[in-house]
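Input for the complex:
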Amino acid sequence: CPEENRNELITHKAGFDGVDQVKVNKILKKLEESSRFGQLKAKKDAELQEKIEEQRRIFERLQAQDLTFVKSRVEHCINKVEEDRDLSKYIVCVDMDAYYASVEERDDPTLVDKPMGVGDSAMLCTANYTARKFGVRSGMPGYFARALCPHIKIVKPNFEKYTAVSQQIRTIFARYDPNFSAMSLDEAFLDVTNYAQSHNQSPDDVVQQIRDEIRGETKLTASAGIAANKLLAKVCAEVNKPNGQFRLDNNKDKILDFLRDLPVRKICGVGKVSAKILNGVLDIHTCGDLLDKLVYVNMMFSEISFNFYMRISLGIGSSAINTNHTRKSMSTSRTFTPTNKVSSFYKTLRYIAEELARRLDQENMEGKTLSVVFKKQSFVQFTRQKILTRYISSRHDLYSYSRAILDKEIPIS
DNA sequence: GGCCGTTAA
DNA sequence: TAGTTTAACGGCC
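Predicted:
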């Protein structure tokens, strides 16, 4: 589902003029509390809060200390990572607007201007902009959406159609960067440096042209961000959404200015939990705050996390598009209505084994580590895995080995 | 090595 | 009535 901001209560966001935020949040809170999913979430929230308070106490002790040597260590890290700064490329992130919903509107004009979502009563992949005015969001259960907006039309997704449209836009992308990298059906990164230079066009014009071609050939709108690297281009794609584009100059000072007041949550890779931890422990809200407090980030987080946050705060990211990756795992999963019947576990497992075997066969792959994921009625999940003595891929092997793993857990409490 | 949690689309 | 699916990676024990 190609959408942003899923599963979160509404904050202050453009396009929410008509919404009674207080009312919306009240309805959502009630629905949340009355579902098992919401109850688990509340429990996890409480655990996170506790962890944050513990970390906060550590931070407060740290503040009393002389961190001069840490400061010089961090400065050294910054100088080192500055060598990675590449301002020579024009990287573009293209993202279709409310993708699935827009395709459905295009093909059924009676849906236009009406609140609509794509998905089912369990989950909405996408909501159109009219539905968003009611507080409906992508990634929200469809029955939540109905509570917020009783007249919402919920349309079943039609993936063949979305894939076909995706083919069309990818054909367009290839004309501008044969090496482009598709992140999902509706989103891609392109390096338009060569195209802009050889056609003597500004990157802005190139991107406008790409978006015009998308509009012309699919009757759908896209938004885009242009910047020196993927990290920044991705954020820029949101700035003038929908149906807009934004370019951030390939200039270090401009980049730091742009980041100064940008909430860390906007950065790809900083999710809800990380943002909460940064906020609650170190009072970090924006990327500027992050830069100012790198010394503490260095003290409080792992080396890997510190490096990640340091690069964010400096706006340093990868400008490489063609990172051809090889698959490391393949999985199939299904959620079914809660039951204790072992026979129904076996039935689902057989189905899953068949599907996985088929997909493994398609890609001519085998696996040696087998994991079984269990989900309970409470939504608590757990995993059991086993490294096999040989590589497997047949539906029979998948079923019998995973059934052995399953049987060891029965009865599940 | 095994498992959990986070993130993203 | 009803809260997904897939892939990757970090952290902890």
